[in-house]
Sequence to fold (308 residues):
Amino acid sequence: MDLFVTIVTASVLAMTPFLIAGLGELVCEKSGVLNLGVEGMMLMGSVSGFIVASNTNSLFLGFITSIVAGTLFSLLFAVLTLFLRANQVASGLALSIFGVGLSAFMGLAYTGTPLDGLEELYMPFLSDIPIVGKLFFSYDPIVYLGVLSLFTVSYFLYHTKSGLVLRGVGENHDAARAIGYSVLKVRFFAVLFGGAMAGLAGGYLSMAYTPLWTQNMVAGKGWIVLALVVFATWNPTRLFAGAFLFGLISISQLFLQSNDGWLSFVPIEFFSMLPYIVTIVVLSVISSVKFKQTLQAPKNLGKIFEPK
Fold:
């Protein structure tokens, strides 16, 4: 039971950056914009927040900086794709590559520097309940913020007029414009929200999950987020399940690496590959003709809006 609780709690922590960044990208794609720059935005949020937290000794300011950094990076993407009408795929890839290089340069002097991470929230009585307290009431504030974001995004998309408008823009931007809605305005704020969430997810990695900065510490998680959004068929609830699955895989490979028993003959490098192998399998499955029939992708996803 102790091992089970340890694996589940560790999986929840590993899930958090996937969930937060995934919700941001989901909203962005629901509006019809495909932003492949998640990796770069997460890296910029990670390094920017870490630098500020290291120099001010304030994790709060660090997380605010992460959000601002991710938002500014997404602003660059929004200007290129929405107003200059550049190709979304090419712009997103360029954003990720730019983020990798710029974050490495900015964080050069901070590589390997430790930081006091976030402490767990103690909830009187609830945190002391055997097993249940550890499973549900033993996490840092960002974990709970991620779960709150899940409910908030779900409510916004499916129970508010603004959410309906956003989904309508993603389905048919010409029709949305014809009835008086500003397509560019809706997509602009959706892109900024996606960038803010990606920046927060990156900040979580460097200031809470592993409180130190190392070059390229996001390590492909931004690309996994993109696969998760498609795997979840643009549904927040399924995104949560997928994020937990990938968190569980990420943690399980660490436990398997330390195993001295019947799996000791398997090279450690194989276990490190597991999350990315699963990503490839997921992408292969969702690319099948049968699965495509069940997808609920926004009809105008990735299509450039031409104001008339």
